[in-house]
Design brief:
By secondary structure, this protein is an alpha/beta fold. Helix content is 38%, strand content 19%. It contains eight helices and seven strands; from the N terminus they run ααβαββαβαβαααββ. The chain has a seven-stranded mixed beta sheet with strand order 3-2-1-4-5-7-6. The radius of gyration is 16 Å and the shape is globular. The model has no long low-confidence stretch (mean pLDDT 90).
Length: 213
């Protein structure tokens, strides 16, 4: 798995009310819990050591991370961006923008931009476009699939317990994932402006944290 292999994921094209999509979103909850992505994002934001006034999440899905951000960063404006409609139980204090964030992000203001398991959906060219939109944020934190053999092995162990859609999408996500050094390059982050940290976890996540003055 030396090179990224981008394959369409089934969940991306399904009606949100389809029972298979509902099952897949449930699978994603326990996958995220196993990977610890939300904890990593919160930790990296706290590491900045400054008050954060506004946070934007890309691919906010059911809004669970948005809610967690609200609880942990009191007073911060939290905005979720997603193709899906606003989740019905989402607190009114959280803003929601529906649409392709490559098109809507330019009109959104914020200090920090975060995302979990979202950037691997995009081609290298689209990641370059996204990087230009992210250049005005002060802090970036993204957790993505780690493209290595161990995560793929762990996914094979988990697949018998997952739904039909996840059995296809999980390996596809890993093959489209990243290794150290790739995301900053693909996003076009200027190393003279950004302080960049990357870490790989044994459970299968690569975390990119970038900040600038």
């Amino acid at each position: 798995m030396h090179q990224r292999l981008l394959t369409a994921e089934i969940l991306d094209t399904m009606n949100p009310s389809d029972p298979r999509a509902i099952r897949s979103r449930w699978d994603l909850k326990w996958i995220n819990a196993f990977l610890g992505n939300e904890r990593r994002i919160l930790r990296e934001l706290r590491r900045q050591g400054q008050t954060i006034a506004s946070i934007v999440e890309l691919g906010a899905g059911e809004g669970l991370l948005c809610e967690n951000l609200c609880r942990n960063f009191r007073g911060a404006t939290v905005t979720g961006l997603d193709l899906a409609p606003r989740p019905s139980p989402l607190p009114e204090s959280i803003d929601w923008v529906r649409g392709n964030f490559l098109e809507t992000l330019n009109d959104i203001s914020g200090e920090s931009c975060v995302g979990s398991l979202i950037l691997h959906h995009f081609s290298n060219a689209d990641l370059g476009r996204l990087g230009m939109l992210l250049a005005r944020f002060r802090t970036l934190v993204f957790c993505e699939p780690l493209r290595r053999r161990l995560p793929m092995f762990l996914s094979r162990i988990a697949l018998p317990f997952a739904g039909e859609v996840t059995r296809h999408d999980m390996p596809a996500s890993i093959r489209a994932g990243f290794r150290k050094g790739e995301l900053p390059l693909l996003l076009g982050l200027d190393l003279s402006r950004w302080e960049i940290r990357e870490s790989e976890s044994a459970r299968g996540t690569i975390t990119l944290s970038a900040s600038r003055g």
